[in-house]
Fold this sequence. Notes:
Layout: H1 2-30, H2 54-59, H3 62-75, H4 79-90, E1 109-110, E2 115-116, H5 117-120, E3 125-127, E4 144-146, H6 150-163, H7 170-177, H8 181-194, H9 211-216, H10 221-232, H11 250-260, H12 269-275, E5 277-279, E6 289-292, E7 305-311, E8 314-317, E9 327-330, E10 337-342, H13 347-357
Antiparallel strand pairs: 1-2, 3-4, 5-10, 6-7, 6-10, 7-8, 8-9
Helix pairs in contact: 3-4, 3-6, 4-8, 6-7, 7-8, 10-11
Amino acid sequence: MKGTRLALVIGLAGALILVAVIVSPMLLISLPSFISGGGSIDCEDDTQVEEVSDSGSSDIPGRYLELYKKHGKKIGVQWNILAAVGKRETDHGRSDLPGVKNGTNHAGAAGPMQFLISTWGGKARIPMSSDFNGYASDGDGDGVGDVYNPADAILGAAKMLKRNGAPENVRQALFVYNRAWWYVDQVVEIARKYARSGEVKVPPQASEECDDPLIEAAPSDVVAKILEYALDQRGKPYLWGGTGPDAFDCSGVIYAAYRAAGLVIPRTTFVQWPFGVKIQEGDEQPGDLVFFNSGPGTSANNPGHVGLVVSKGKMLEARCRLCGPIKVTSYQARTNRVGFTRPLQNPDVLEQLKKLQNPSR
């Protein structure tokens, strides 16, 4: 009997090992890259913690590496993607081909990150105090956006990649940068080689595992309901005028989130801005709105874009059709921020809250 039990135990252990061997490859395939190495996600981490590989350190000039990391972190784009673009375009400014250090190449591109002059803003060197339409940027604080200046060009490239989908959808962002999928494949491969991990990581905020801490930290049950609905919409596409359930615009997803909590606020950004009570920067909290001067017909007093604050420095936003899906991102890196409001302090909303708490009234 004792021998029978021992044989049964051994046989059961062998079966479990066999199951583990068969199942484990599928489990490994299904695990997200940021947890396949074990441990839980650090929801306060960001994409810039990535260490540079030995080959990256030897290939990227020190000044360029510093700029890739600095401007990548500032804008919220993977530094190794920026570095890979710089490598693919001009070998980090070392190329002597036309258009790298002066003039333009045959396609009209210029500078170390190879911007089309029209995309940069119409001229190679643009005073930042002037009006222009493009990605011209001042990365060294001299007041001029110079397409040939690595500090300016790398900052401009980070902004362009961010607007078009990075850091979550870097392939889409790279395709907009240079519309060829072979180009996208090459840049991603270079970026992987530059990272010690061999990966192009996305922000942990893109994971649903980071939702619960945000909701649990909400200052009230009403705000928790607003956040829960809003975060559930992450990954859905932008649609101008959209109020769900399949797609939203920036104000539409906020309008729908407040409705999910039983509250009615204005539908559009232009009306949401004067509706809420103004909040000083630094005093904002989850459930508040953060506004930006963005889009035709907008200004500091008439902002055209809005996000929902989900934690200090972070917002959920539906930004634009080419900017990737609805996502959690940073508002601190945005230079065109106008201010914050708290719709929950509007007198109409306060009355709605009273009715929710005392439905018999």
